Amino acid sequence: MWSQQWNNIYDMMIPFPDKTNIDVTNTMREKGWNATHMFRVSEEFFTSLGLLEMPPEFWDKSMLEKPADGREVVCHASAWDFYNRKDFRDINYLLKMALEKIAFLPFGYLIDQWRWNVFSGRTPPSRYNYDWWNLRTKYQGICPPIARDDAQFDAGAKYHIPGNTPYIRYFVSFVLQFQFHKALCAAANHTGPLHTCDIYRSKEAGKILGDVLRSGSSRPWQEVLKNMTGTDKMDVGPLLEYFTPVTKWLTEQNTKNNEILGWPEFSWTPPIPDGYPGDIEKIANEKEADTFLSNYNKSAEVVWYEYAEASWAYNTNITEANKDVMLDKNLAMSAHTLQYGMQARNYDYSDFQSPETQRILRKLSEIDKAALPEVEQKEYNQILSDMETIYSVAKVCRNGNKDCLPLDPDLTEILAKSRDYDELLFAWQGWRDASGKQIRGKFKRYVELTNKAAQLNGYADNGAYWRSWYETPTLETDVEQLYEELQPLYLNLHAYVRRALYKKYGDKKINLKGPIPAHLLGNMWAQSWSNIYDLLVPYPNAAQVDATPAMIAKNWTPKRMFEESDNFFKSLGLLPMPQEFWDKSMIEKPKDREVVCHASAWDFYNRKDFRIKQCTVVNMDDLITVHHEMGHVQYFLQYKDQPILFREGANPGFHEAIGDVLALSVSTPKHLQSIGLLDKVEDNAESDINYLMSIALDKIAFLPFGFLMDQWRWKVFDGRTPDSEYNQQWWNLRLKYQGLVPPVPRSENDFDPGAKFHIPASVPYIRYFISFVIQFQFHEALCKAANQQGALHKCDIYRSTEAGKLLGDAMKLGNSKPWPEAMQLITGQRNMSAHALLKYFQPLTDWLIKENTKNSETLGWPEYNWTPVQAVDPLPPSEESNSNSDFLGMAVSNGQAAAGQWILLALGIVLVITTIIFGVMYSKMKSRAKMSSSQMELK
């Protein structure tokens, strides 16, 4: 009933059916054994050891059989089970024992794991059944045969839960009994395999066992165990020794059959039999389902539009009033999702003819945050809004609060243009103090609530829910494999960049075998290094691609940048931006109010209103961002006539890739010349390397950052990273994958992940890593459709309607099909692949390898513990100094403090001189002795 022992299905798995097995049940029946006889045989075993016989009261008062008079009794056996120990010599016997003893171990372990989590509050009532099955899958590899939810309480179907009986005792006993068995066998002078031992009639073994039993609980169990076995520790060694023959046999059988150990496809569920009672109340009428979905679609367009408008108003004018309206509309949208999502769960769509109807009902049944109780929904929305507000209005101030700099454009410009180590540190550290550190207190509760919502939707945690959007069970291993393919290119780029920074900042700030300080790479998060291209240009005398000077010289405006992007899409035969886009988008930062400057594209779900919000700066970097955001809007336009739940990318990475794939053409020298931003195009190897370097500093430098962001969050969501290690694990990942270190010591008072928009805004990030891979797959396929010849990095699909049709057809699908179908439509194959990206950068890869070899560069950062020499704290005090100072724990005047400091300085000089004198004297006595040194690590 509980899958705690599997010996009752032994007949299905007898290793050697023609050999002796030890199930003597039929023989017992043939000889007329009854319950009393079984107990008499058991008693005789104990007395044969010199132990006590059962008293008369035992035989008079025990209930050995279920009464036949109709009364209810507790049938759970509450003393020793009976085992027959004949024939100890074969695999059949050992497997039978394993089906009882080994099969039990995970069950014996997990029952109190579950209860301890319940008692401690880690498993709340809303998650009783979910966590029960999570543990059973994790430890036993068992799943329920039909769907279970938190309306059920399957843990209570085991006697010990309602009986309030601790259960870990049984797990412990299954280990200890083999320790006891080995000790008793030794006392009985048994020789040979442990599983063949029979202590029957051994008075020596009986005495040892009797001594243990007589001690009761009068002594600590460790003492009793040591007296019996020679050790005071529980030990699985005897158990493993006992089962060694069958362990070896199982290993051989599983190897021969290529069995998979474990259950990697842990989310698999068995099919439900036709007509099973659980489906009786479900609606199986497809026409009725279509009517239901039509009503949902119409009402959702209204409700989602109202929320989008309220959210837009808040994001473009951050006020408390606008936030309150947005939160109210969010609750209304959640209520709508909950209402229709619960109704969608009433449909049995397994036999529906339309795959689209099945897909929509399945998506609608996942109600996301609407699954939370209303009070917790409000709390979640408030936390998310608060975190995003903190991020969006954060400023870094000099001179008290008089000269305060927002992220965009001021701090961003400092990181991009300054080459002063300390000024860069001021901006880098200041931003993290103003944003992430202020968010940390709210993030833990955000994790709890978002995990609860995911679990109420049937997922282990929020990370598992996010990954489910890709409909790829192997997503984690797939992206890991992609990253491993791309890592050698990143390591070569990292080594080359580190050398250039070494030339700029010197050996105190850069270690040629260590990680790079994270504030020196031209970007607040070191996700793109293109802003320090001037320090890295391979051939300074060859042509370099930077459209920014021409854009400024020709008086380009943000609107002109968007118009050029629109022209590019139209040249492919794709859709122009509607008038609402030009009328309602925010493409420059307003001067009269606070806004969320992070660039984003918006679908208002009424099939005509699409906008972009961006604090655009006239430079080439933002020109690329414009194409990226316009790519989102083009996707919106293409799938606008799909049902509302299909108005998404084929997967989240597709949505990010569409604009970027066009930017690969836009950034080519050929295209920039065609739109008047480049005077001439030099077609030679040196110019090619310069160009590829400029692209790699954006695309390749990003890869580990795009990969690690959600590696960190997935571990936070599933509990592998506790809140006490948020910042430590963040920097562990940044060191491991990016080869970066913080320029100043960090602690758990900081929250550096929160200094990146997507963390407080709860935007999944693995989509960007995926998009940076698949955009090159798209680019290669579109170039082929455009009949472009030559190197992939020179391809420009501008004005190719053939390429545009390929892209448009895939975008029209939205999310109506699994993403591999959209991938196949564009590329002719169904998988993500790094091949096209590696092909694009092959000339640069070859050049980097040659250059790094010439300079004897170290790939990677073997001296990973290195930290840069710290500058004086670059952050000025936020307030003017008070008249008193703290000196050695005492409040003294500024003058007294200064005098004290001079006295300490003088004493310090005297101490140094004295130390030097003694050092010289000591060195004379120890001439030629070897010197030793030690390192101090600052963490």
Automatic annotation (TrEMBL):
Signal peptide: none annotated. Glycans are attached at N297, N317, N401, N831. The active site is at H160, E629, H758. It catalyses: substance P + H2O = L-Phe-L-Phe-Gly-L-Leu-L-Met-NH2 + substance P(1-6); angiotensin I + H2O = L-histidyl-L-leucine + angiotensin II; Met-enkephalin + H2O = L-phenylalanyl-L-methionine + L-tyrosylglycylglycine; substance P + H2O = substance P(1-9) + L-Leu-L-Met-NH2. Pfam families: Peptidase_M2 (PF01401). Its EC number is 3.4.-.-. GO terms for biological process: proteolysis. GO terms for molecular function: carboxypeptidase activity; metal ion binding; metallopeptidase activity; peptidyl-dipeptidase activity. Zn(2+) 2 binds at H628, H632, E656. The keyword Transmembrane applies. Keywords: Carboxypeptidase, Disulfide bond, Glycoprotein, Hydrolase, Membrane, Metal-binding, Metalloprotease, Protease, Signal, Transmembrane, Transmembrane helix, Zinc. Disulfide bonds join C397-C404, C597-C615, C783-C795. This is Angiotensin-converting enzyme.
